[in-house]
Design a protein that fits this description.
Layout (H helix, E strand, L loop, with lengths): L1 H25 L4 H41 L8 H18 L4 H31 L1 H8 L2 H35 L5 H44 L3 E5 L5 E4 L1 H7 L3 H5 L12 H12 L8 E8 L5 E11 L4 E8 L1 H27 L1 E6 L4 E4 L1 H7 L3 H4 L14 H12 L4 E8 L5 E12 L5 E10 L1 H45 L6 H30 L7 E3 L1 H12 L9 E4 L5 E3 L1 H18 L7 E9 L2 E8 L31 H11 L4 E5 L5 E8 L7
Parallel strand pairs: 12-14
Antiparallel strand pairs: 1-2, 1-5, 3-4, 4-5, 6-7, 6-10, 8-9, 9-10, 11-13, 14-15, 15-17, 16-17
Helix pairs in contact: 1-7, 2-3, 2-4, 2-5, 2-6, 2-7, 3-4, 4-5, 4-6, 15-16, 17-18, 18-19
């Protein structure tokens, strides 16, 4: 294509040369005039040529600036200084050539000024690209200033050429007057020459325009390909990648050489090879240019891991190549997998919840929108009878109005409500349900529905009522027995005392010893009855919790217990104890029982040592009291905390066997545990725990 164009140019110049020769032969008389005319023509051509060269060099500067802005490649700026120097030379030549023509001189000056402005504008865009990047430079490049300068320059360019051409015509007309014998054929030939020259100029201009468009398209294509955030590839019919953009290299970690010299099948996950190659063959042998394929497969990265890619591919039938764009969707696939697992878990949770609990969903007005089979079963209503009805349909009337007012106040504020509700079934039977109501809110925290999860504890509630009834009967029985037992005990003690006073002279020492034993056992029986009543009363005593200082409480009890001189020999090893959260009066009984036991059972030791300390275990504080006393047989430790269970004879150590049972009951009421460790004549350690949770109120 370029060769044919050059041939046309050569033919055109040959025609022009013949025209000049014919014009010289035409007349000898006008030879001098012809020479003068040719000089002026040459002068005009130089002006036109210099003007064109100046605008062409400016275009080269603009093109170089545009190429650098788009690509950032400094190669475009390599010859910029040389081009500017040539441009300056052409402008100087124009000044010299038009020095004798004031009109043209003014236009040349204006042209020079505009060219300098446009050149400086390109310099500023290049500097902006260097300093602030492509987007800012492109924005300035796209402003109307640059195009405005070019339009003005081209307008002056055309005016100068037009003026020179007009001058040329004027000079030719003048010369024509001197050619009275000039052949008409010469004028016709000259006119044809001018037409051919205009056509040539038009062809050159069109060619330059097309070349600029092609170069710009190529630059834009390379920029799109290299700067695309997606993975761009060109694949040939042999199964190799011909080229890949930098994003593909960065994502998979391979170099351009590794990518283009490795068959594409080597990058694929083994499970995806067959399907991918089938798609590849469909593309290569497709007869449809617009046959776009979309598919997903896995590619191996250089580190051995795999990523998921989503492909969009289009074949080029003429070049037998495939143009593809891929996007890394690994994160999306992982999210989809997590979502699938989550949905599966939710389905399992829903199944478990439906199987184990009673479920009701209502709107914000309390109207039923969904119930599960368990609610239908306990309420004796069918699903059709319940949907659309208000929850009042199962109201038993047991709870006061304030109960439900408080409930609605809580859930309407988005709070979760928990509590026991007594409801009435369709057949008027009563059922108790422990209910948790959860407000279901949208992304703006506006409640849309209420989810009620309920557990049927009717049987337990009935058992509680029965137990409460039995406890009241037991309490009455205990007090009755206590009253009935105290009267005989007082009688035994009184009559024994009378016997000792009135018959003292008749009683020998053995009889007196026996009467004393009778009184001691009656007194011990009274103490035992008191302890038994206290143990019974402890089970009904409410727990009022608060934070208190364990150190202070233990110190007070030790001072009370060691007031006797016999206890002054004890070595106390007391750690700094944490604060406790519980009923201080009940916990005082715990510490009194355990400390007094430690004192009592270590009293036979010549050097008694009692250690009191604590340590943390999970969410609980573990307290311990350790002594070096008589200890106990470890195989009987389970009896220690049961009523009337004693591991030592009453004549060895006093007591009723209820103290440790009281300790166990108090600690249990506080949500803790109690246990003991020991060995005979090696001391004993008693442990108990208190939960470290101030919100747990029993």
């Amino acid at each position: 294509m370029v060769t044919g164009f050059n041939k046309k140019i050569l033919v055109l110049f040959a025609i022009l040369a013949i025209a000049v020769i014919l014009a010289g032969i035409a007349t000898y008389k006008t030879q001098q005039n012809v020479k003068d005319t040719e000089a002026w023509v040459t002068h005009t051509d130089k002006v036109i040529a210099e003007t064109k060269e100046a605008t062409t060099r400016l275009k080269d500067i603009v093109l170089a600036a545009r190429g650098f802005v788009i690509t950032g490649d400094s190669l475009f700026l390599k010859s910029l200084d040389t081009t500017k120097a040539i441009l300056h030379t052409h402008l100087q030549n124009l000044n010299y050539l038009t020095a004798g023509n004031s009109t043209q001189k003014a236009k040349i000056d204006s042209l020079k000024k505009l060219i300098i402005f446009r050149s400086n504008f390109s310099d500023s865009v290049i500097q902006l690209r260097k300093e602030k990047g492509f987007a800012i430079a492109k924005k300035k490049f796209s402003t109307i200033n640059g195009e405005h300068y070019l339009e003005d320059i081209m307008q002056l360019h055309n005016e100068i050429i037009t003026t020179e051409n007009n001058l040329l015509k004027t000079r030719e007309l003048t010369n024509t007057k001197n050619y009275q014998h000039f052949l008409l054929s010469f004028y016709l030939l000259f006119a044809g020459t001018l037409i051919l020259l205009a056509i040539t100029i038009f062809i050159v201009w069109q060619n330059n325009l097309m070349r600029n468009k092609i170069e710009l398209s190529l630059i834009e294509y390379k920029s799109f390909f290299n700067n695309n955030s997606d993975l761009c590839l060109i694949t040939n019919k042999n199964g190799y990648f011909e080229t890949a953009n930098p994003q593909f290299e960065a994502t998979l970690g391979y170099t351009q050489k590794e990518i283009t010299t490795t068959p594409l099948v080597k990058f694929l996950h083994p499970d995806d090879v067959a399907a991918t190659m089938e798609r590849y063959k469909e593309h290569i042998y497709s007869s449809n240019f617009n046959y776009e394929q979309r598919f997903i497969n896995r590619y191996r990265k250089k580190d051995g891991s795999y990523i998921w890619l989503e492909w969009h591919s289009l074949p080029n039938l003429s070049s037998e190549k495939i143009y593809s764009i891929a996007r890394d969707i690994t994160e999306r696939k992982q999210t989809e997998e997590i979502l699938q697992n989550t949905l599966k878990d939710l389905a399992n949770y829903k199944y478990a919840l439906n199987e184990s609990s009673i479920i009701v969903i209502t709107n914000t007005h309390g109207n039923i929108e969904h119930v599960n089979d368990n609610f239908c079963k306990i309420s004796k209503f069918s699903r059709e009878e319940l949907i659309g009805q208000n929850m009042r349909i199962v109201n038993s009337g047991y709870h006061p109005k304030e109960f439900f007012t408080s409930l609605w106040n809580s859930i309407s504020k988005g709070e979760i409500w928990k509590g026991e509700i007594r409801d009435c079934a369709k057949d008027k039977s009563i059922f108790w349900i422990y209910t948790v109501i959860v407000p279901l809110q949208d992304d703006k925290n506006i409640t849309q529905q209420y989810l009620a999860i309920m557990i049927n504890f009717t049987a337990r509630k009935e058992a509680e009522f029965q137990l409460d009834y039995l406890n009241k009967e037991l309490q009455a029985f205990t007090y009755s027995v206590s009253h009935d037992l105290r009267a005989p005990l007082r009688g035994i003690t009184g009559f024994t005392s009378i016997l000792e006073e009135e018959y003292a002279a008749k009683l020998d020492d053995e009889a007196k010893r026996i009467t004393q034993v009778i009184k001691n056992n009656a007194t011990r029986m009274g103490i035992l009855i008191d302890d038994l009543l206290a143990f019974s009363r402890l089970g009904r005593q409410p727990v009022s919790k608060r934070i208190f200082s364990t150190n202070t409480l233990v110190k007070e009890i030790i001072e009370e217990q060691t007031s006797e001189k016999t206890h002054h020999s004890i070595e106390w090893q007391i750690q700094t104890l944490p604060e406790s959260f519980g009923d201080i009066s009940l916990m005082r009984q715990v510490w009194i029982n355990l400390i007094s036991n430690a004192i009592k059972y270590s009293s036979h030791n010549n050097h008694p040592i009692i250690e009191i300390g604590s340590f943390r275990q999970n969410n609980k504080w573990v307290f311990f009291i350790r002594d070096n006393g008589v200890g106990f047989d470890d195989k009987y430790k389970e009896k220690l905390f049961k009523v009337f269970q004693r591991l030592h004879a009453a004549n060895e150590f006093e007591g009723t066997g209820i103290g440790l049972a009281n300790v166990a009951k108090i600690i249990t009421k506080h949500g803790g545990e109690v246990w003991a460790e020991g060995a005979i004549n090696k001391g004993a350690t008693f442990y108990f725990t208190i939960p470290d949770n101030q919100n747990q109120i029993i």
